[in-house]
Amino acid sequence: MIFELIPSALRMATPLGFAALGGIYSERAGVINLALEGIMLIGAFGYIVGAQGSGSTWIGLLVGISCGLAMALLHAVATVTFQAEQVVTGIGINILALGITEYLSPPPEQVGGLPHWQLPLIGSYSFIVYLLPVLMVASHILLFKTPWGLRLRAAGESTEALAALSLSRAKWQYLGILLSGLLAGAGGCFLASEVHYFTKGMTAGRGYLALAAVIFGNWRPLSGVSACFLFGFATALELTNRWNIPGQLLHSLPYILTMVVLVGFVGTSRPPASLGKMKS
Amino acid sequence: MNIRKSFISLLRGRTSQSRKFFLSCIPPLLAIFGFFLSCGIVVHIRGQDALEFYSIILSSGFASFDEFGYVLFNATPLIFTGLAVAIGYKSGLFNIGCEGQLYVAAFAAAWIGMHLKLPAFLLIPLCIGSAMMAGGVWGAVPGLLKAKYGAHEVINTIMMNFIAFALMNYLVTSVYQEQGQMIPQTPQIHETARIPRLASFAPFLPESNPLNASFLIACGCVALSYIFLTYTRWGYELRLVGNAQDVAAYGGINPRTVTVWVMALSGAVAGLAGVAEVMGYRYRYLDSFSAGWGFTGIAVALLGRNNPFGILAAAVLFGLLNKIALDIDILLGIPRGLFLAGQGMLIIWLVSIEGISRKTERRINS
What we know:
Chain A is mainly alpha-helical. In chain A, 71% of the residues lie in helices and 3% in strands. Classes of the chains: A mainly alpha, B mainly alpha. Chains A and B meet through helix 3, helix 4, helix 9, helix 11 and helix 12 of A and helix 5, helix 6, helix 11 and helix 13 of B.
């Protein structure tokens, strides 16, 4: 029974996982990234447009990721350079992405998926699916075991420490946000590659859910991505739905879980100390 | 002599205040100007006549009472959501949950309006009251979680949005869907639960114009919010908690209590946007009827600088933008997405301008 769910759970969890990893980089550097939703959407859009234009899904992936990076750059310029309110900027970017993709909506031509790899016991999935656990572990090592990660985290925790090392907080924040653009953009590409079409607002709140996973996972890659798998399972349950539980109620399960976790684990759930704070 | 001196200083203080106000109006106006300019450039790039585009823009909202009625009709829900965001913002709370709150409230109004058969003078207040209550509860939950457990209201209001979408979708497709209909909507509410259209009083509005008395309620809310925030004890407490929480606590105000009731109030006001839709326009609950009003409300509050009258103006502007978007779609074939993208860009510009001005202010002060 559980095994039947795994394929769809993995497919649901992968775009979330990528966006969540992106969110972790950005938030660890101290910038709230509500723009994940818009970045994913524009990434999915870029994939479809790129693949339609060139006939190659690889070009599609490249275009999608570049679009995600461009959106993230906008977020970075507004929030870091101009010190704009981060939450509002994020919402602005989401509306912008929705508008751009609606305005330039690509023709409803089917686009190929990304190459699938067949693995014994597990099955055949897009290579992006296999990339996620690798990136998850790599991000953990990068963030918590290397000086590089220490500096990125210092941008979100203690500005003074960075200043003492005479490092620029802005530079690290740019880096964190751009990484989130790269990853969330790739997540959007995966989503589009599985659906094969672009539809209006196709991310349908996945960016917000990814952000919830970031918080759920206490801003750590391993637990953040695990939260995405949990959400993926909840969504897969909704799709199979064999107990006649209304799908919509199952659908809201990840959100309720997040709220419960936020309340119950408040002792252990601690955001980066200067998350969302402007320059002091 | 003393009196004269103090009078002069008062006058000076006044002038600098009004000068400050005018100066603070310049950035948003610049942003709007830039918005229209860049839209014109895009239209030109599309190979269409930018001048025709501008003439449509100018005539779109003001050619007749009918057109202007549509603008005000579009503005109505945004006035409510803008006020809701501003009320939260003034006490340092960020309510992104207006979208969910207005859905829950709309459903509550529709449910009461469908099930109770009462005369209008009882049913209308009852519907509005229950809608505000539902929206208030939806807003109070994140407030309570913040006050009691320190859970961030931004995340929790977003979560409550999704829960509301799912729950309402369930109710309207599985429990209360109108019989024999494919559209996910409830049956109509009773005649006595409907807020009258202004066309039935005002001879200059054609019968078809959807502008209704909920716009007057919205105007009333603007005035009430202003009085509430500026002149009442609660408004003072709310602002004090937003500006200086330690001072508030020292003065005997419990910031946690304030957090809870502010979020509840904000949710209740956001809920009125749902009332306007269900009781004033559609006379039923239609699934996912809101065109992102809760989120646009953030932009409205921002543009209106969190001042109730500013919000009224900003909401009318956004109502006008939506009207224009529709007109250029019909007349020039330019998809609505262009204006949506423009709105997003406008929001980013506005916050950026505000960020820069805060930055320079800090530099001057230090």
